[in-house]
Amino acid sequence: MTYPHTPGHRNVDTSMAAADAIAPKLGRLQRMAHRAIRDAGAAGLTADELAARLGMDRWSIQPRTSELKRKGLIRDSGQRRPNATGKLAIVWIAS
Question: pTM for the whole thing?
Fold first, then answer.
């Protein structure tokens, strides 16, 4: 299998190791993220909001949004909200 069914990496040893570590949990994390975004309805969730809702760190959850988008399960709502750094972030909604 290939991305988005397996975690992506940047062909750097540390990135590849991180992808290998998350691989056994990938399907569960994608399902959790998809369910939370779907349950948020039209209000959607940013990656930071998604991580907070799931009680996980943003670095484990944000890549799941890219994977879910590639799978066609979520989409950019066109809305933007500030993230933890104050920059505007994509608000994701279910497709």
Answer: 0.85
